[in-house]
Amino acid sequence: MPKTVNVNVHHVTRIEGHGNIVVNATNGKVEKVQWQVPEAPRFFEAMVRGRSYQDIQTVVSRICGICSITHSLTATKAVENAMGIEMSEQTDKVRILMHYSEQLQSHVLHVGYLVAPDLFGFPSVVPLAAKAPDVVKAVIRLHRLGNEWSDLLAGRTTHPVTLVPGGLTKVPTAQQLIELRGRLEACVPDLVAVAQAVLSVAGSIPAFTRETEYISLRQDSPPAYTFYHGEIASTDCDGTVAVNDWKTVTNEYVSDQSTAKWTKWHRDSYAVGALARFNNNGQHLLPLAKDVAKMFGLQKGCCNPFMNSVAQLAEAVHVVEASKILIDELLTKGLKEEKVRVSPKAGKGSGCVEAPRGILFHEYEFDRRGNCVGADICIPTGQNHANIQKDFEKFVPEILSEGEDAVRLKLEMLVRAYDPCVSCSTHMLNVQFVR
Amino acid sequence: MTKPRIAIFDFACCEGCQLQLVNLEEELLDLIGAADVVEWREALSEKADEYDIAIIEGSITRLEDEDRLKLIRSRANILIAMGACATIGGINKLKNNFDDLEEVKKCVYGRDAKRPHLATQPTRSVDEVVQVDYYVHGCPIDRKEFTYIVRCLLMGKKPEVPNHPVCVECKAKGNPCLWDYGQVCLGPIILSGCGARCPSNGFRCFGCRGYIDNPNVDAAKDVIDKYGLTVDQLRAKMILFGSGQEATIHA
Fold this sequence. Notes:
Order of helices and strands of chain B: EHHEEHEHHEHHHHH
CATH superfamily of the largest domain in chain B: NADH:ubiquinone oxidoreductase-like, 20kDa subunit
Radius of gyration of chain A: 21 Å
Radius of gyration of chain B: 19 Å
Largest interface: A-B, 64 and 59 residues
CATH architecture of the largest domain in chain B: 3-Layer(aba) Sandwich
Number of strands of chain B: 5
Oligomer: heterodimer
Helix content of chain A: 40-55%
CATH superfamily of chain A: Cytochrome-c3 Hydrogenase, chain B
Shape of chain B: globular
Number of domains of chain B: 2
CATH class of the largest domain in chain B: Alpha Beta
CATH architecture of chain A: Orthogonal Bundle
Number of domains of chain A: 1
Structural class of chain A: alpha+beta
């Protein structure tokens, strides 16, 4: 056992945003273990104040470049909820289809570009591309497909422009959807190849577990693996909580080691993300996605945070399969242009969507002219910060004897497994409604 | 000839512009072949103290970030501001419209706002802190424009970026004018180069690339008069990405 272990990682690499890891241990005794979040706060809840209900999604999309579609969708849903605006079935389906493109893009980015180098033992995807060119090429093709799919439906790869309260500014043509369906069908072998490549190095996934509360959306009627509809569910309780009551779940507080707020519900911390969705809804994955989970022995009730990346692989397959079904339904009904007509009114409402990295909540209040007078946003990574800290506290004593380098690498891998979006999580706020 | 060393740094932002670099896919590997990317926290593990070209993403909102940016500037021969947060302050400047930043902090952090680690300053674009040599505009940046500018620099050429309004590119695409559909579109006063991507998808230009030189805001006023809209409506759109920039509109 090394006498002292001191790890001080300033700004963990290959994650979105800025996080630090601090570990001090002497003679096998852990003195300090900290996950710190020093990201510059950006104060979005203040920045949307006074803005029109038409501009909210444009502003808050900028919370995150990687999950900008999810942020825009959540904001749009919250505005619609506040003003009592109903969605057409077509809009609902096209939005979900758009959201799936971001899930694929983000999961492939995370597993392929950010996590795989650790499992294969490389510092980044660049040397990995030289060593395993076929796998990296499959990752690139899938990532490009996710992006071009976003381009088609959201108008841009990042920061969508087609989403507006009440509908969409543009509806895809039948021909475009038929082409997309063909590409989705054709990408399945790439998905399987990437899953098999990860499986070949799955021995590098640390066998760490800690009993954890997992929180995600759950849809009961009809039962489905949901990212968009449903209510809030936890592995610690049976019922669900309505989206408008999300603050009874998040219970945010300010920690001295973080500029992002932390959250807790039934325990000291909880986790959100692909593994949380799998643990709440895994039985509803489509068959091919279930096969991928099975390949890795992933089962409901899994409390190994490193398996989040495996759950992401299963979800990547699920969204492709689910999208093919959605496209068929849209084509059968026939696509039509729909006029967006909304008149603003006063109200307050919430929206909730599963970002690739976990459940996301937005709440807004508007005056009668539709100008925003208050906002409250709670980000998935903010909800994971306390859980990362709790994992650190259990994990570090278990691996201390392996020495400084191993502790550093494994803690970095643990942070990456959560697929954190630190710049998202920082600035997330208190409800302070100013009238 | 040794390859130029490129380092990429991020400040307060959403990292969506870095994501556009990842989205270059194979082309990114070409870039990494032509240059030596020595630091890029989001994608690589490596860190470096020496580089020729520094690419800066994000706005400056804290004292410690100002020091870090000045250090980067002192080490780099060429400094590029990438994306609206860096080039014009972008969406982050919305908070500068509040008279009192303590109020902004309270709005987010409530009674915890006074804790020292939550300190903040008015948002500044990169060129309000250090000298900027080249700009890659947009929120997010256009991948093709980025590779064009970097390719020029690697070949020792000066990149040419258009200085005409978005309307030029929008008209060339044959789009119907969104003003005719009741939208307050900033196309007439905003720098093009984006291919009029937003109006082409039925969504108004909200000005993420910043103003053209000498934007004719008075003409924009004539346009709003024609469509029976108000100066307040135009100003509310200009504020999204244009807060704290020079173009102002008088009622």
